[in-house]
Design brief:
Number of helices: 2
Largest sheet: 4 strands, antiparallel
Strand order of the largest sheet: 1-24-23-22
EC number: 4.3.2.5
Number of strands: 24
GO molecular function: metal ion binding; peptidylamidoglycolate lyase activity
CATH architecture: 6 Propeller
Shape: globular
Helix content: under 10%
CATH class: Mainly Beta
Strand content: 35-45%
Pfam families: NHL
Cofactor: Zn(2+)
Family: Belongs to the peptidyl-alpha-hydroxyglycine alpha-amidating lyase family.
Radius of gyration: 20 Å
Length: 370
């Protein structure tokens, strides 16, 4: 009985700090050799195509007047879809030590929180999501243009179909109830991100408190927990997830472990599910906030970690687990929170939660092959 008590004590008493930029210069340090840390010695064969994100200048062409942009995804028309918090800010008073949201009296955000942008100009084409969310976090547009969002205040995941943005067609979790999945009752605790397979299976990063990935079928029935209780893998704030279906892996931004972890997804075979996860670690990664993928490539962004670790983007080979390139806009990143790559692999978008900004990058060949 003692070990059961300890498990519940750990699960329900994890305090989750806010996402604001923090003064954490002593949080983590690999030393003072900034030349080593900020300039990777990249060895890429000339016959390997490495697409580098190049900043698209003056995009968006006008101010969006939004709050913290916590998520971006791409619809079937190649348009970026963003999720923002309007006037809401996550600070030290937003949740108590039991992960209960403390600002219910403010009600839901009254503004549209989901904006569809013109990929050419960045202007708002249409918007929705008013009076629905309390603390937006993750957003994913699936292959059928369903929109999946997570609300860390409500501890829930919602699916919205293209024809109905008012009422979700599927809800996972119970409103304002922080908990742990147990048999037929699935409770979440501040879920961060969702990844959807072409088969319809759902992967939820159950993020700030439970430190796990939950796999559901298309109807929302729990199928699998990653990592398994019997395994040796542990996650420490899975903040973002992306599926590489051809490799049958789900890759996770394991934020506080400062790495990218790619366990088997079990889409092709449950026999392989017990294979060790691919773990991508590097002294320069820092706290990985978001991951996105195209083909064998993972794109990632980190956040403030220490004075010796630059805030920037990374291009990673998912098969070999090596960093191919690093990148950033001309003025640098401050606090990136999410990223998404277009389905044709031509462009990449990164959002920040301070300043509240979205960047557009064109993916171009690093080498001149003429």
């Amino acid at each position: 009985m003692l070990h059961i008590f300890l498990l519940f004590f750990i699960v329900f008493n994890v305090y989750c700090e806010p996402e604001t930029v923090r003064d954490n210069l002593d949080y983590f340090s690999y030393g003072n050799n900034e030349d080593v840390l900020k300039n990777l010695d990249i060895h890429v064969p000339k016959d390997e195509i490495v697409l580098r994100p190049q900043e698209v200048k003056d995009w968006p062409q006008q101010s969006l007047n939004v709050g913290q942009i916590t998520a971006v995804s791409i619809n079937s028309l190649g348009q970026p879809v963003i999720f923002h918090r309007a006037e809401r800010v996550w600070d030290e008073s937003t949740f108590n030590e039991s992960n209960v949201y403390q600002n219910l009296d403010k009600g839901p955000i009254i503004e549209d929180t989901i904006l569809v942008l013109d990929s050419r100009t960045g202007s708002v084409l249409h918007s929705w999501g008013a009076y629905a969310f309390y603390m937006p976090h993750g957003l994913t547009v699936d292959h059928h243009d369903n929109v999946w969002v997570t609300d860390v205040a409500k501890h829930q995941v919602f699916k919205y179909t293209p024809s109905n943005h008012k009422y979700p067609s599927l809800t996972i979790g119970e409103a304002f109830t922080a908990g742990y999945p147990y048999r037929r009752r699935v409770l979440l605790c501040m879920p961060t991100s969702v990844a959807i397979a072409t088969t319809g299976e759902i992967f939820v990063a159950d993020g700030y408190c439970n430190n796990q990935i939950l796999k559901f079928n298309a109807a929302g029935t729990l199928l699998l927990t990653i990592p398994a209780f019997s395994g040796t893998l542990t996650l420490n704030l899975p903040h973002s997830a992306t599926l590489l279906e051809h490799l049958d892996v789900v890759c996770v931004a394991d934020r506080e472990n400062m790495r990218i972890v790619c366990p088997k997804a079990g889409l092709k075979s449950y026999i392989d599910i017990m294979e060790p996860a691919t773990i991508i670690e590097d002294p320069t990664l820092g706290r990985v906030f978001a991951v996105a993928s195209h083909g064998d490539i993972i794109y990632a962004v980190n956040g403030p970690t220490s004075q010796n670790i630059a805030v920037r983007g990374f291009t990673v080979n998912a098969v070999y687990g090596n960093i191919l390139d690093t990148w950033e806009p001309a003025t640098g990143f401050t606090n990136p929170h999410s990223l998404a790559v277009t389905r044709n692999g031509s462009h990449l978008y990164v959002t920040e939660i301070g300043p509240n900004k979205i960047w557009k990058f064109e993916l171009t060949d690093v080498y001149d092959r003429k």
